[in-house]
Structure formats: structure tokens, C-alpha cells
Amino acid sequence: AFGRNSAQDIKVELTLSKDTDIKYAGLLTKINWRFMATERTSGGGRDDGNLYLTKTVTGGGSKSKQFEFRLYLDGDRYTGDYYIDGVRFTAEKGVIWLKDGETASIRKIDYDTDYEVEEEDYTSVGYHTSWENRTGEIDSGATYVNCTNRYGKLPFTGDWSEDPTAYLILGGILAVVASACVVLLLRKKKKSALDDSK
Predict the structure, then answer these.
(1) Which H or E element spans position 192?
(2) Whole-prediction pTM value?
(3) Helix, strand, coil: what percent of the chain each, to 5?
(4) Which tens digits make up the pLDDT trace of 140-161?
């Protein structure tokens, strides 16, 4: 709506909130203190969003170990600031460090930005990783990414291809069965030879 520029009106500029750059110019009427916008002076579209990356360690793993993460925004590695418990850090060389129970917040990312989070591979030291929302698009407001590392040997799921140790167990079983078959065949052959000699 447009206001009447009378002696009772005050020209003002209104910012929607401290977290957005969308501003409107307009008139504030002294009669009822109603703001009437005349034009948008800056900003537009959907609000920026924040990304929250949370780290959880289970299975008796270290609670103080730092884990290395990398965040990509529209394909480019993020090297800006992130916050943990209100303390600001910088993702030097594109690395974000988190330990168990910590959440890194990356603020004011453009709405609809494609994101992808990667973690360094820690399987060689016993950590197995699972994700929630590892990739996606930044929404206005909050986007949550959860990374869980389970320490120790994973339970066998029934899929032999997922557990190399299972191949060793299976190979050992087959070796025992094969050896038993060889022994039985040799005994049978020896018994047959004895019968023939009588």
C-alpha cells in the first residue's frame, strides 16, 4: 500500500529482521503508527539459511578425538567461519574439526545452495560412519546434518560382501570341510585296498 506524504507522516526504512538484508522504504503515519511500504530498497527472495553439523561417537570410541570434515557449497570447498558453542573458528584449508557431542553452525548461506559434507575415512582405526542429510539444498532457516561414528567391529548383517572378516571365517569353514572330505576319502580308499588284499 502507498501512504499519503502529509505533515503527519515520517519517512522510515524497515528491516524485516537482523538476519536478513530485505529492507522496505515507506511512511510511518503518526495518526495510527501504521507503516505503509512504498518500495523495497534491498534484498529479495527467500531468507538465508544456517547449516548445523553434529558429530556423535558411539560404541566406546574416544570422546575427545577431533574428526576432520569438509563442506562443499555449490561444489566449492567452504573456507569461511563456523561456530561451536558460540565460539568462532575458521575452516582453514577447508577443514572443520568436531569431536563427540559438538555441533558446528555455518551461518547465512544463500537459500537453495547445494551442499555436501565429507568426513575423513577413519575405518582403519575402527570407526564406521553413518549419515543423515549428508547432501542436499540449503533451506531458509535451519538445515541439519548428523554424522555418527560407531567404534568397534560392526555386527554381521548377513551380507558377506559388507564384512571382509566374514570371508576369512567362510574360508576357514570351507577349508575344514575340504580337509575332512580328503581324510574320509583316504580312509575309504585304504579300507578298499585292505578288502581287496584279503
Answers:
(1) helix 164-197
(2) 0.58
(3) 20, 45, 35
(4) 889 999 999 999 876 555 554 5
